[in-house]
Structures are given as structure tokens and as C-alpha cells.
Amino acid sequence: MPIKIPDTLPARSVLENENIFVMPQYRAIHQDIRPLQLLLLNLMPDKITTETQLLRCLSNTPLQIEITLMQTASYQPQNVAGEHLLSFYTTFDAVRGDRFDGMIITGAPIEHMEFDDVDYWSELTEILDWTRTNVHSTLHICWAAQAALYHHYGVRKRALSEKMFGVFEHRQTKAHVPLLRGFDERFPAPHSRHTEIIEDDLRSHDEVELIATSDEAGVFAAIAGGGKQIFVTGHPEYDALTLEREYRRDLDKGLTIAPPKHYYPDDDPKNAPILRWRAHGNLLYTNWLNYYVYQSTPYDFTA
After folding, report:
1. 3-state DSSP call for residue 187?
2. Which residues are the active-site residues?
3. In whole angstroms, what separates CA 233 from the centre of its chain?
4. Is the domain defined by 3-240+278-294 classed in CATH 3.30.2140.20?
């Protein structure tokens, strides 16, 4: 899907160098179609990296997407230039009267905190409630999946004794779910988190359907409202070196951290990691766009 993004967004040059089709704004406005309107609430500290990873995954289907980038107003990130936020990001107040075909809410490295202690929790819960009426389908990633499951359904996260960190094998728990259409019977995906959702806790809520899990990493994907809400506890959008960067960052901080599991050949951090989840990661985002957004969203939001 050609993605319409600002010509000066840093992700643009990265994606074009990877031979990914990013549509110039001039060409976009001369196509006689309605582009899918996607809202990305980016809660990650390294916003440029997260933008690039997600835009990469959204790039390979045949329709046009227009991305709106959003940050929280109640918390100002410290790891991104203010100029970047001013140039490319909006806040909830500016879009609360709009409607969107789809929305992605990213994770955030704050799993150790109670939800109520998060600086922007009140703002986030308002946004989560708003998605029920103003967004056709919302995809929640990692911490955002845990936060949304807690806010909407009362499913609590549980602390892990050690970080769930690495690339793990998963399996589908329900056949013929469009989100996982085309997936292999076993598929890999990265995880990087200190908390988890217990499968029995999730299954106690009839409104939420578990669709993929891992013997080692636990709950991976769930769905509610026929696809209006999708929850993914891992990071299928991660690039090849994301786990490597996180591992080296924590080592540099003097933290006790084991190497990410099943990531380095022979589990040896001296070996270069192998990217083996990109195909399924791209397919997950493509399936979400096709089956839960494009195929069912109204052409005219005002009708």
C-alpha cells in the first residue's frame, strides 16, 4: 500500500532506500480514491525508529494510506527532538472530532508501573474510550495491548520473574481468523516485556477471543468486537537489530540482563542475529489493514 507521509519525515528516506513504495504527496492528491485514514499513537521513546518500523509493515498492499502521527499532551518525551514533534505530530484535542479507519497504539517501556501511576493514564483512557466510536479498528501493541485489556475488560497484567526477551515460536489457537490468514502453523515473533497476560485470565472474558499463543512466551494475540479491537503482546514490527540494541543498551546501563532467547545463532551474542520473523510481521499488518480496515470500513464516514 503506498503510504502518504510528509516528504520530510525521516522514515521516508529509510524506506525508499529499502525499495519500499512511499507515495509523494503530489501524486497522492491526484489519485481519485479515498485513502485509508490511519492514526498512530506513538508512545515509544525513540519515535523515529518506531515510525519507520510500523510504516515499513504497512507498505505492501495496493491501496493508499494517509498516516496521522499523534503523541500524548500530558507527557512530553525526552528522547526525540522537539522540532520533530512540532513538525509531524498532533495531539488528541486536534483529532477528537475526526474519524479514522484504523488506529495503532504502540507499546511503552513502562510495564513495571501500575497503570494508574502512568503520567498520561487519564489521557490514554480517554483515547481508548474514544476509539470505540471514532475508530473502525484499533491495533494495540505490547504494553498498549495490556493497558487496553485492563481498561476495557479488567484483565490484569502479571509481573514476570525475568524479562520475556527474544524471538519465540507461536501457534494459532483458532482456525480461520483473518488476522492470521496465510500464517504457517508455527510462526516466530519477538517479545520484549516484563509483564504478561495470563491465558486463563483472558479466557474468563467471553468478549475477548484468544487467537495465538506460545508455550514459552504465553498470550500473543487476541481479538474483540469482531476485529474492532486487536491486541498483540509482541513486536512483529521489530527490525533485525532492535533486540540487539535493547540488549546492548541494558548492558551499558549495568543492568543484569540475559541475551535475547532464540535470537543469536547458537544463542551466542557474538554472532550476528538472523531476521526470521519479517514475513509474518508484514502479513499480520497487511491482514489487519485488508480484513479489519479496508474491507469493512465505510467509504463515507459521515453517512
Report:
1. strand
2. 142, 235, 237
3. 9
4. no
